[in-house]
Amino acid sequence: MVKKLEAFIKRFYLVLIFIFLYTPIITLMVFSFNDSKSMGKWNGFTLRWYSELFQNARIMNALKYTLIIAVVASIIATIIGTLAAIGIHRMKGLPKKTLLNINYLPVLNPDIVTGISLMSLFIFLKPLLNIEFGFLTMLLAHITFNIPYVILSVLPKLKQMPANITDAALDLGATPGYAMRKIILPQIKPGIFAGLLMAFTMSIDDFVISFFTTGPGVTNLSIEIYSMARKGINPSINALSTLMFVTVLILLLIVNRKEFTSRGGKIEEI
């Protein structure tokens, strides 16, 4: 009886968490089909906000910069972060602890501190390297704040690797490059993929750092939505958010289906 009650409480608590998480998203999706600009009143079903979305040059321009910067920044940050994680993993003692603590600082730092510091750095470098605020500065800023998250995603997978597996491969005649490609990277691939997704999500979601490092003519969705907030959010943003959520959901289902199929239909227990 007690076990059944505990199981019921756990399930109820889990359902409650998902209700709080997904109710705002479902509300946003429902009102993306509302024929009124107000989310406080339902005027009937319509698709006009989806039509206006693709005709809104400002939103499309912001979406373009958002996706380009997110894709490029996440790929570069994943490459740098993976190599950095492998290097940190091979270190020992005080140098390793020092680098780990340095890596924690950008993660724990408030975004406004990181944004202002990067802005100050670009202002300092502007006369030296002739850097203008815009696409390049925002891209460099996104790469910079994404790297620590990639390192933190890859390090646990490196710790799970069998001890001395790399040394064994080198003793058997493998070159360092071959050992990296055939031994290390396949072992830590889930961590690399998780770091890539984390970097991509952080880049799309970022507002504060982007706001301080962008320039004229270059904006992303976060900045564009913030500028709309003073006059009222355009319902086309609800339509865009719905499309982004559905796209991510479909990609997640495809990835999970592939993993499920590769395990021969067996569900992996957590």
Automatic annotation (TrEMBL):
The keyword Transport applies. Residues 63-255 form the ABC transmembrane type-1 domain. It is found in: Cell membrane. InterPro entries: Bact_Polyamine_Transport, MetI-like, MetI-like_sf. The chain crosses the membrane at residues 12-33, 65-86, 107-125, 131-152, 191-213, 233-255. Its main location: membrane. It is a multi-pass membrane protein. Pfam families: BPD_transp_1 (PF00528). Keywords: Cell membrane, Membrane, Transmembrane, Transmembrane helix, Transport. It comes from the Bacteria. Gene3D superfamilies: MetI-like. Belongs to the binding-protein-dependent transport system permease family. CysTW subfamily. PANTHER family: PUTRESCINE TRANSPORT SYSTEM PERMEASE PROTEIN POTI. This is ABC transporter permease.
